[in-house]
Write a structure and sequence with these properties.
heterodimer, A: 277 residues, 0% strand, B: alpha+beta, Immunoglobulin-like, 3-stranded antiparallel sheet
């Protein structure tokens, strides 16, 4: 990627390209690295296999077959959002610490692109994985939800809530990647964080929760976002009635994204870790 | 002789009083037959009445589901997430109604019944148990989702994406 950015930014490929913002160039090159020579296609293929298994079981399994169509669509959509966000987080958690370990960060930092431009470009490239995952999920949602007017609302919900969640967790993963001392640490912390955030969503819904349970759901961005999806899709609530559940994902986007952009000039450097030189 | 009969009657009466104190409540369902479709949620109510002459102890009501066909396995926890309810002591003649939210998660024929157990400090673990008459539940199967329609999608999408990923890798290796 580095050489390409150098070529296109440093050498001034042409007048039009030179006017392109730095983050756009980084995003374009990162996307090429991810989708042409990287692991993007393999990750999306694995994602589609998982969705196929879930969809087939939902549609054929005798035990699951009593599910209402809305619940079946909700189940598949939640898996799509969860796994789509997971792969986005994994890619973003590797973005800076991975370049640092591969020894390519130095060259990237020498390009005329600002450090904010670098992190924004990497963020945009990581989000491309989420959008690809969403596109792959469309036929599965359609095949389960056709016949009842649930496909369009489900896709709109998945796109809106999933993008918000992907943005929040990608920013968090990128932030962890910039401050981590090694790529291993960045990936491990990101995955642990994701599992910790997803674990409460697997609690039985019939369990009594009380106000503490409600608060815990609301402060957990992943649980809150998936709760909102279920409330609209399965319980038929209005789009605005449970909108307050989206506060924590929005706060995470603002916090992680804000810190990332504001501190990028200081934290995107050759040595990771808070006390690194 | 009369005095002796009076003594016997007194003893019998004294024996009869604890029997009255141990009187167990009556338990009945509001419906004795229910017909639903697989996945349907329905509600049953049981009325617990103390028809004795003494108050009952603390009570515990427990809902159970039994399959009437041997080929259907029933896990009652799947049918209702709240199968146990506590009851306070019931005064003579007093009754209370319990509500059970149930979801039919298996197709077939079932009996649902409620057992009421004494749950006081002294009576817990000693019984007697009171069992309601069963509510007969017939659950019809249904297929809400079209498995046949799903099959082309669940096969074609991964195959296309796998081919695309494979071709991409192949071209990359050839290029290198």
């Amino acid at each position: 990627m580095i050489a390409a950015v150098h070529e296109r930014v440093g050498a001034g490929e042409n007048a039009t390209r030179a006017r392109e913002p730095g983050w756009w160039l980084v995003a374009g090159q990162e996307c090429r690295d991810l989708w042409v020579s990287g692991r993007g296609p393999v990750l999306i293929f694995a994602f589609s296999v998982l969705l196929s298994v879930i969809t087939y079981l939902t549609a054929t399994n005798q035990v699951l077959n009593f599910l209402e169509q809305r619940e079946a669509v909700n189940l598949t959509l939640q898996v799509a959002v969860a796994v789509g966000v997971l792969v986005t987080l994994v890619v973003s958690a590797d973005a800076v610490s991975g370049e640092r370990e591969r020894g390519t960060l130095e060259s990237l930092l020498l390009t005329p692109v600002s450090r904010r431009g670098i992190v924004l470009g990497k963020l945009a490239a990581a989000l491309s994985l989420w959008f690809a995952a969403f596109v792959v999920a469309v036929p599965y949602v359609w095949v389960l939800g056709r016949g009842v007017s649930v496909v369009v609302p489900a896709l709109a919900l998945g796109l809106g809530v999933g993008t918000l969640l992907a943005l929040a967790l990608a920013a968090l993963g990128l932030l962890l990647s910039t401050v981590s001392s090694s790529n291993k640490v960045s990936l491990a912390v990101s995955l642990f964080l994701l599992l910790a955030l997803f674990a409460p969503t697997q609690l039985p819904t019939g369990a009594p929760q009380g106000w503490i349970g409600d608060v815990l759901v609301r402060v957990n961005p992943v649980a809150a976002a998936l709760h909102y999806v279920s409330a609209v899709l399965v319980n038929g609530r209005g789009w605005t009635r449970d909108l307050s559940y989206l506060i924590s994902p929005v706060v995470l986007v603002l916090l992680a994204g804000g810190v990332l952009v504001a501190a990028a000039p200081r934290i995107v450097r050759l040595h990771g870790g808070v006390s690194g030189s | 002789m009369r005095a002796r009969w009076a003594l016997v009657a007194g003893v019998l009466a004294a024996l009869a009083i604890p029997a009255a104190a141990a009187a167990t409540p009556d338990v009945t369902f509001d419906q004795d037959k229910v017909a639903v479709v697989l996945g349907d949620k329905f509600t049953l109510q049981t009325r617990v009445t103390n028809s004795g002459r003494a108050p009952t102890d603390l009570l515990l009501a427990h809902l159970n589901v039994a399959s009437l066909t041997s080929d259907v396995y029933v896990d009652p926890e799947d049918w209702s997430s709240r199968r146990t309810q506590e009851l306070g002591p019931l005064a003579p003649g007093e009754s209370t109604t319990l509500t059970w939210d149930i979801q039919a998660v298996n197709a077939g024929r079932f009996d649902i019944y409620v057992v009421v157990l004494p749950n006081g400090a002294a009576s817990a673990g000693h019984g007697p148990l009171t069992v309601s008459p069963p509510a007969y539940v017939r659950v019809a199967g249904r297929r809400t989702l079209d498995a046949g329609g799903a099959l082309p999608v669940v096969v074609v999408v991964p195959v296309l994406l796998g081919l695309a990923a494979g071709v991409s890798r192949f071209r990359l290796r050839r290029g290198a």
